Amino acid sequence: MARMHPQSIVFAESGAERQVFEALERALPNTCDVLHHVSWVQRVSGRSRDGESDFVIVDPDRGILVLEVKGGVVRYDANTGSWSTGSSDGPRTVIGDPFQQATNGKWNLRRWLEELPDWNKAWGPFGHAVAFPSGLLTGGALPQTDPGLLIDAEDFQNNARLKQKLDGALQLWADGSRLGEAGAARVVQALAHDIEIRQPLGMAVDEADREILQLSDSQLGILRLLSATRRVAISGPAGSGKTLLAAEKARRLAADGFRTLFTCFNRPLADYLRGSLAGNERLEVLSFHQLCRQLAVEAHLPLPPQPWSQSQWDQVVGLLEPAASKLGPRYDGLVIDEGQDFSDDWWLPLLTLLHEPDNGILYVFYDSNQAIYRRPGGLPEGLVTVPLWENWRNTRPIFDAVMRFFEGERIECRGPAGPAVEWHKVATRDLRRELGIVLQKLIVDGRLGARELVVLTPKTVDRSACGGRCGNFMLTPTPRGQTDVLLSSIYRFKGLDAKAVIVCEVSGPEDASFVQLMYVACSRARSLLVVMETLSA
Fold first, then answer.
1. Does residue 435 carry a pLDDT above 90?
2. How confident is the model at residue 410 (pLDDT cuts 50, 70, 90)?
3. CATH topology of domain 422-535
4. I need a labelling partner for 129 at 20 to 30 A (CA). Which of 43, 427, 430, 534 fits?
5. 14-18, 251-255, 309-313, range with greatest mean pLDDT
6. What is the CATH number of domain 217-391?
7. Three-state SS across 203-243?
8. Which residues, including other chains, have CB under 8 Å from residue 533's CB and lie 6 or more apart?
């Protein structure tokens, strides 16, 4: 049986074509390919033209035969030179010359194939024939038509006769050329190959990301509440929009004329927000440690020699209170993000920076996941508590992953659908190789921008096994080139987020810090998350 393309008839409006389809499948050997309802587009004299054929028979040994099919009773009227179809004694419909249609189909297909860049001009020959599966020829063949090119109902009576007629039609067009297996395969591949219209991963991520990077109606409602209350503690899990709300509140306070300080624990977060909130001289954005250093310098207090160790940074933090006492109040409002990371003894010196320490504007945003963070201690009494219970930052698959490491009140996901989270278990010795493969898949195959991606590790960057070249990409804390990807520690990236995140070098639940690390790391991803858990072996 011949190899049919498609394997079963799809274009079934014509009963004649269905009959021919089934007959060709039975009569021809499995070395032949038969393509049904073939169409193509070609350029003719600078214009696009459609080409089509009812059937194309591809025989490696005998060549290509374009077969035109006409059903019903077909008649040629010599007086008018016209062709028609219909019943013998009823109304008839004028049709085009089927032999001319077959001829045109043959030459159009030949021209189209010969324009393919890898087409071999020695492949051939090309022929045509016309099939009348429902009618018998009466009268002699027309002068312009060889009898061997007309296949009627009698030829369709049995498989052997049909094959003999087709072989004869192909033989009529023999010109010394040969198609061969390679040529036959190229014809089939050109006319009947599979296609799939895929959405690159980067586009799917972009769609999800556009929905995430907006303030929701619910979050705008929180802002309206904050505008009516001067001192508030806002709690919420990762992804609930705390930083987005905090930044917007700080911007609005400054725009309303209040001298405002926005401060947080994480310096990279402060550096990022300083750039995005630039433009209002009444708004100052500093990490807590930057604030302590800046005020100590302004107050001319002695600082330890640099570079500073952690203990020396603690000394700098200790200078905030004397610096604030010496310099005096300077802010109308404080907006504090990442409040769960602030030590109890930081709050009082912070409040002394307000013109009204007891009644001045104070908004504290903190994480409500009690399994990991505590409610900030040292806060003044009388703060109105506002809980956030919706996650807006993460797609639903990422949210589900984050919730595996969350303990607290039920949180609702308001993020859009997105790509599934990928989980890999990788031996330590294979980490760099596997990471390079993942980066290739995301950036090259998925068309995700290298700068839209961050690789997070629980280790410091200088101790991570991921730093440097991984495959075709360079992992670095300071990406500059087109193939550079940001590498950051989970702790340093806390408070920030990225369109896509790869988490590496986490070792599994047996590690006591695994839950905390995964909660922070996974929640950094807005729209795409890949976790590469390393195995000891």
1. yes
2. confident
3. Rossmann fold (3.40.50)
4. 43
5. 251-255
6. 3.40.50.300
7. HHHHHHHHHHCCCCHHHHHHHHHHHCCCEEEEEECCCCCHH
8. 423, 424, 425, 426, 506, 507, 508
